[in-house]
Amino acid sequence: MRFPEFDGEWEVKKLGEVASNKSGKYNPINATDSIKCIELEHLATETGQLLGYTDGSKSGSIKNVFNEGDVLFGKLRPYLKKYLQAPFDGVCSSEIWVLKGKNISNDFLYRIVQTNSFIDLANQSSGSKMPRADWNVVENGFFSFPSLTEQQKIASFLSLIDERIQTQSKIIENLKTLIKATSEKLFTQKIRFKDDNGSDFPDWEVKSLGEICEKKSSNISANKIEDNFGEYIIYGASGVLKKVDFYEEKNDYISIVKDGAGVGRLFYCKGKSSVLGTMDIIKPLANTNTYFLFYLLSNIDFTKYVTGSTIPHIYFKDYKNENFGIPCTEEQTKIATFLSQIDEKIEIEKQLLIEYENQKKYLLQNLFI
Q1: Whole-angstrom Cα distance, residue 156 to residue 364?
Q2: CA-to-CA distance for 350 and 22, rounded, in angstroms?
Q3: For residue range 2-13, what is the model confidence (pLDDT) as tens digits?
Q4: Could you identify which of 26, 138, 231, 366 might form a hypothetical disulfide with 1, taking C-beta atoms 3.0 to 4.6 angstroms apart as the criterion?
Q5: For 146-184, how does the pLDDT look when each residue is reduced to its tens digit (9 = 90+)?
Q6: What is the three-class DSSP state of 64?
């Protein structure tokens, strides 16, 4: 892919010929004023987003100095793809490279560090437990470079995609905030629905969780389904695990991670599916709407029920005694319908985000020779 107004061959050079990895050093011992400091944890994975910063004058180690527009790349565990074009002057962790274009624009350099070619070189790293990218390897990698005008055209075009991705991410975060705030108001009855005739619903009844739902265990292990493939979903601790040729639950239900990482995580599971044994199945009893139950469970802080230090675990017998105000079935349905519509909107926006991210990956692969 190429913009039609450009022609001619791109020039092939080693990265070290057109970009530098040298930066000044900052010693907090000699600092008198505060300064913005970016650590590895402040760089989002594969998005180019800045998650925050600290005061470098209060840190206890030597930092790298960067200027606005410089390209930052996390050399520790380079497979995490942590990169950023600096939005301000500051300092950063010594585990972050500060890259500056010598004969190319920093804008174009920032796009180069996102390409598969650069990431592959960075992953030819030293160390196994704590791999670090080796600049001696990366700077000797060959890349193709167009004229400065074409560099700017490519960088500007990709920046528009980045802006759309950021906007899409913000839309999703706002919807998540909306559903959380609305759910809290609904379950504390600060917001109430009317029935179809415009009349008030009956007062809510206080019930324990164990009175409105029941727990069922699963004995399916990941090993048992390793070579099994089919049309029915089986859920794991991170969501959909794979598709198999059987299902254990005919109707919709809720699953909760009961063991290990992600303990307390909830999933709304459609019927004709199954879950691994590290998860419990929560089913509504009579006069309880399944979606309503899901949103009710989402308001529980399950961390207070975690036991075990090596492998965290939660038990239904511990959290089933939580008490809640429960509305009649008709009001449950209205609450569930309202919240599920926001959830559906979130899923649509997530799919759009995936499409934009895939579009960017395609362009990165095809705009660079």
Answers
A1: 13
A2: 39
A3: 888 888 889 999
A4: 366
A5: 999 999 999 999 999 999 999 999 999 999 999 999 999
A6: strand
